[in-house]
């Protein structure tokens, strides 16, 4: 090997080459890394370093600092040099592992490092053994100037990485044994027999849509509002008129496309009364405009107010798909109208509410327009079954009029930037659907969504819920009289019902039970329609609870640090046991339930005492990635990264940590979790983190995206979401203060 010293590419000094000038003295503290390398080193000799202040303070070999093994051939020692001690005198020595034989000090003069630069000739470290054998070590010295802030962050990261994970070896999917009866996880963690003892009030904006008639959650007619607020409905919508297109003529405008294919997703055999089953995604070619001045394809994307408003508040795939649709699709395709079709009591409004909630959560500006709500506001709630007869011209005209009013409102909203409108009505005749397609021409793309149910039990249940909840029967004291009237109304619709076979459509056939069924799609293409189909394939009405909870308090929670992968605090360990007892009591009759955690050890540890249920680790449930801010407190971010702190403060939803994530990024990676929660027919316990649970809770509670970063999800509290035919209901349990 040669002599001399040289700086490597990242500022280190290597023995064996030429010398270099000293490091810049401006700012920061000197960070030094000493390394020794020898492929023939004897295993019982451990490299050490000793010398003057600040290494040891004396040349006493018994106080020498041990170097850490970095690899089979490399040993390393790193330290920070105080500003007033930037001259280091040191030597290397070898110490036997047993400590009974003398140390072996390297040959030659002391080494001297001044301001990060090695003085004199760089050389190998030579050690003479008793048998006159000489061991040679390659010496590498790296010196950098770093800020105290970076040093502190590096030290925290080093400490976290140095500490072995307490959950290493736990498989991604595991099933514990069934617990012994009567077993409690520690006296301090025992719970009252009655879990209602722990119930606390849910916030005012909780996920209790199941307590409200679903149609009442739809949009109010635009005529009911003005700049100053709401006005009297009798003086507005009852006086409104709208031009109704001639629905007697079959619509054949440019907005419709000849049916090309039917794709069906079905675990069942083909039904006789529906088209044959085969899978065809029906993906059409993108439409591009060829430039008249060149052979190259080009397209124009005008980022005016209309385009900006019609872009979803989203990241990742949703944003990419929206940009592609803006550039490649026709103008009307930038706005999507999902037009529900089906007989009464088939779950249309339920489906509309779920789709609205899902699309809003993904970032699409979506509104639900319920024609029944318009009808009740314009014509009252006391209409008998005769009003819905096809041979009642006055009733037909009145119903077509309110349908046109709702469609007109939806199109006006889209022209202001709305993206997806869900038009909720029976729309059971071709003439009605032709009228809607005529109104949509040049304004939006229509996809019909037909719900078909042949299960008499489900139909009867839906009818009874309708009588109990619908404002149409709020003034009918006799339940049986209301039931007879609704059955007559249903018969009036059945006489003239015409299934959808025109345009683009999705048919949901017997999907409500969650036990199979069919979905047929025709002439469906594009990212968003594809996501809608995928969502509908996985949704059902089976009641089941979903329990959301944060991990027990972690040591980083105590220190106020974000991110990290720390273990639980003493308080967190108590909650861990209380949660296990709660789950055992709450789900004692639900042996098909499962426990979902993130891959971070604080959630895995929180779930560890829960036995008898499968446990699944999801990377998608990991806490929001804080990037370079991971392990810091918000005060440290404010002090050392003030611009980042202010950017986050201004827009927490879209703010992305440097090399990390935003809340919109978290929503994108949580979509598979939402789909699977919708698909599950058994209870699920989700143990995750604050940002992730905020996003999940916002989906069930239908909270606006801008509110997600501010939703309160306290520690040691369980949020129970009950999903079922009546909607979503919420209950909260607080197990600890």
UniProtKB/TrEMBL annotation:
UniProt record, GO biological process: fructose 2,6-bisphosphate metabolic process; fructose metabolic process
Record protein name field: 6-phosphofructo-2-kinase/fructose-2, 6-bisphosphatase
GO MF annotation terms: 6-phosphofructo-2-kinase activity; ATP binding; fructose-2,6-bisphosphate 2-phosphatase activity; starch binding
Gene3D superfamilies for the chain: Immunoglobulins, P-loop containing nucleotide triphosphate hydrolases, Phosphoglycerate mutase-like
Keywords attached to this entry: ATP-binding, Nucleotide-binding
Source organism phylogeny: Eukaryota, Viridiplantae, Streptophyta, Embryophyta, Tracheophyta
GO cellular component, one term: cytosol
Stretches assigned to the CBM20 domain: 24-131
A Pfam family: CBM_20
First and last residue of the signal peptide: none
Region (Disordered): 1-24
InterPro entries assigned to the protein according to its UniProt record, in alphabetical order: 6Pfruct_kin, 6Phosfructo_kin, Carb-bd-like_fold, CBM20, His_Pase_superF_clade-1, His_PPase_superfam, Ig-like_fold, P-loop_NTPase
Taxonomic source organism: Hibiscus syriacus
């Amino acid at each position: 090997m040669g002599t001399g010293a040289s700086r490597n590419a990242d500022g280190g000094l290597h023995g064996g080459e030429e010398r270099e000038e000293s490091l810049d003295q401006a700012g920061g503290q000197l960070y030094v890394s000493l390394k020794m390398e020898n492929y023939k080193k004897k295993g019982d000799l451990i490299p050490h370093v000793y010398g003057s202040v600040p290494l040891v303070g004396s040349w006493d070999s018994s106080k020498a600092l041990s170097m850490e093994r970095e690899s089979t051939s490399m040993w390393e020692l790193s330290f920070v040099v105080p500003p007033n001690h930037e001259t280091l005198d040191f030597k290397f020595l070898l110490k036997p592992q047993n400590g009974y034989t003398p140390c072996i000090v390297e040959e030659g003069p002391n080494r001297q490092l001044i301001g990060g630069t090695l003085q004199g000739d760089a050389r190998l470290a030579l050690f003479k053994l008793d048998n006159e054998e000489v061991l040679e070590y390659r010496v590498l010295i790296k010196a950098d100037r770093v800020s105290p802030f970076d040093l502190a962050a590096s030290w925290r990261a080093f400490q976290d990485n140095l500490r072995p994970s307490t959950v290493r070896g736990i498989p991604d999917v595991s099933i514990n044994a069934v617990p012994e009866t009567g077993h409690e996880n520690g006296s301090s963690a025992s719970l009252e027999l009655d879990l209602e003892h722990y119930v606390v009030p849910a916030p005012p904006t909780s996920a209790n849509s199941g307590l409200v008639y679903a149609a009442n959650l739809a949009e109010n007619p635009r005529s009911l509002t003005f700049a100053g607020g709401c006005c009297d409905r009798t003086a507005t919508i009852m006086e409104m008129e709208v031009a109704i297109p001639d629905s007697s003529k079959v619509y054949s405008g440019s907005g419709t496309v000849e049916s090309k294919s039917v794709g069906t997703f079905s675990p069942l055999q083909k039904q006789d009364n529906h088209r044959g089953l085969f899978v065809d995604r029906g993906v059409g070619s993108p439409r591009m405009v060829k430039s008249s001045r060149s052979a190259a394809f080009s397209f124009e994307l005008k980022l005016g107010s209309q385009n900006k408003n019609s872009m979803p508040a989203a990241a990742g795939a949703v944003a990419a798909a929206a940009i592609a649709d803006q550039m490649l699709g026709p103008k009307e395709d930038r706005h999507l109208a999902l037009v529900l079709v089906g007989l009464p009591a088939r779950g249309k409004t339920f489906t509309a509410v779920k789709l609205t909630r899902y699309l809003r959560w993904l970032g699409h500006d979506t509104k639900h327009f319920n024609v029944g709500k318009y009808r009740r506001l314009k014509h009252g709630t006391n209409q008998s079954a005769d009003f819905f007869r096809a041979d009642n011209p006055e009733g037909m005209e009145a119903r077509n009029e309110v349908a046109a009013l709702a469609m007109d409102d939806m199109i006006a909203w889209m022209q202001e930037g709305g993206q997806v409108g869900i038009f909720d009505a029976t729309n059971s005749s071709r003439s009605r659907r032709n009228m809607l397609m005529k109104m949509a021409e040049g304004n939006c793309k229509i996809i019909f969504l037909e719900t078909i149910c042949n299960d008499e039990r489900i139909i009867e249940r839906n009818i009874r819920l309708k009588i109990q909840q619908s404002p149409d029967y709020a003034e009918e004291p006799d339940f049986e009289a209301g039931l007879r009237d609704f059955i007559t109304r249903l018969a009036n619709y059945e006489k003239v019902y015409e299934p959808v076979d025109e345009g683009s459509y999705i048919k949901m056939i017997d999907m409500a039970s969650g036990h199979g069924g069919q979905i047929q799609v025709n002439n469906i293409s594009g990212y968003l329609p594809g996501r809608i189909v995928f969502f509908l394939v996985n949704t059902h009405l089976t009641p089941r609870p979903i329990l959301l909870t944060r991990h027990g308090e972690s040591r980083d929670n105590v220190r106020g640090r974000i991110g990290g992968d720390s273990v639980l605090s003493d308080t967190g360990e108590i909650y861990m046991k209380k949660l296990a007892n709660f789950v055992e009591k709450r789900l004692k009759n639900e042996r098909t339930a499962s426990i979902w955690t993130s891959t971070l050890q604080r959630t895995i540890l929180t779930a560890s005492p829960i036995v008898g249920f499968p446990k699944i680790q999801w990377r998608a449930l990991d806490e929001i990635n804080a990037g370079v801010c991971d392990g810091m407190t918000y005060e440290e971010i404010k002090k050392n990264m003030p611009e980042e702190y202010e950017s986050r403060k201004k827009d927490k939803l879209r703010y992305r940590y440097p090399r990390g994530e935003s809340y919109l990024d978290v929503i994108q990676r949580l979509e598979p979790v939402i789909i699977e929660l919708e698909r599950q027919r058994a209870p699920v316990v989700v143990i995750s983190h604050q940002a992730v649970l905020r996003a999940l809770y916002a989906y069930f509670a239908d909270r606006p995206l801008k509110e997600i970063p501010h939703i309160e999800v306290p520690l040691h509290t369980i949020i129970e979401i009950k999903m079922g035919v009546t909607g979503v209901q919420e209950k909260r349990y607080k197990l600890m203060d």
